[in-house]
Amino acid sequence: MNENQPKKFLTLESKFGDFKFYLDKNLDILDLKHREIKKIHETTEDLSNIKDIDLSGNKLKEIPQFIGKLLNINKLNLGDNLIKIFPTFILNLTSLKTLDLQWNPLENLPETIDKLKSLEYLDLNHTQLENLPETIGNLTSLKRLWIDYSNLTSLPEGIDNLKNLRRLSLFYNNLSKLPESIGNLVSLKNLFLGNNQLINLPNTIGNLDSLKHLNLFNNFLEVLPESIGNLTNLKILVLSKNNLKELPDTLSNLTSLQELYLEENPLILKGKTPTNKTIQILKKRGVKVEL
C-alpha cells in the first residue's frame, strides 16, 4: 500500500461518541471486544482477509451487514451484546467453524441455520431460546453445543443427525423429557443436563456408548432405565438431588466408572437391598461413591 493512500478504517459509535478504528493492511483478526460499542457503520472497505472477528462485550443490538460478505471468516464472537434477532446474513458464512452468541437476549434461531455446514462450535449459553429448529440436526460438522442457562422446554427429534457431536451442555433449562433420538448421538462424550425438570430418561440413553461424563444433577428422576448399564465407557455419573429410591442392578456393569454422585436422593440403603448391593459392588471396585 502506498503511504499516501488513505488507511482503511471502520466508523464506530460508543457511549463516548463516534470514532474511527484504523485497520492494518494485512489484518486477518478484527478484535473490537469490550469497547462499549453501540453501532458499527457499514463500510465498502476490502476486509476479505479477515478470518476472525471478536465483537464480544459491547452494546450491539445488531451487527453490520458487511460481515455477511466476509466469506473467509471461520470464527465469529458476538457474545455479551444485546442481540435479540439472529442476523440471517451470517448464514452466508459457509466457512464459519465457531459461532459465539452467548449472553444475548436471543429468542429464536432461523430454520435456515443449517446453511452453516462447516460449524463445529456453537455457544448459545445465557440466551432466551425456548426451542431449537429441527434443522439444527443438519449441522453435521458440529462437535460442541452449549445452551446452558436458557429457556429450552424440548429438543427436536432431528438432533440425532449430529453424529460428530462430542459435548452437549444443557444446564439450567426447562427440559421435562428427552427425545428417543438422543440415543443416536454416537460420538457424544459429555452430556450435561443438570438443573432441568426431567422425570425419566429414554431407554435409548444406553446407546451412547462413547459417553464418559453424564450429569443429571437436580432433576426429578424417580427411576433410571436398565439400559444405563450399557454405558461401559462412562467415568463420571452425577445423580445428586433427584427422587431416586433405588438404582438398577445394571449400574454395576459400568466397568469404567470412577465417580458416582448420589447425594440428596431418598435411596433405601438399609439392609440387603438391591441398591445397597449395587453400591457395595461399585465401592469394592474402587469407585468413589458420594451419598
Topology:
Blueprint: E1 8-14, E2 17-23, E3 29-31, E4 37-40, E5 52-54, E6 75-77, E7 98-100, E8 121-123, E9 144-146, E10 167-169, E11 190-192, E12 213-215, E13 236-238, E14 259-261, H1 274-284, E15 288-290
Parallel strand pairs: 3-5, 5-6, 6-7, 7-8, 8-9, 9-10, 10-11, 11-12, 12-13, 13-14, 14-15
Antiparallel strand pairs: 1-2, 1-4
Question: Can you walk through the features of this model?
Answer:
The chain starts with 7 loop residues before the first strand and ends with a strand. It has one domain (40-290): Leucine-rich repeat, LRR (right-handed beta-alpha superhelix) (Alpha-Beta Horseshoe). Helix content is 4%, strand content 19%. The strands form 2 sheets. A 12-stranded parallel sheet has the order 3-5-6-7-8-9-10-11-12-13-14-15, covered by helices on one side. The chain has a 3-stranded antiparallel sheet with strand order 2-1-4, with no helix packed on it. It is mostly beta strands.
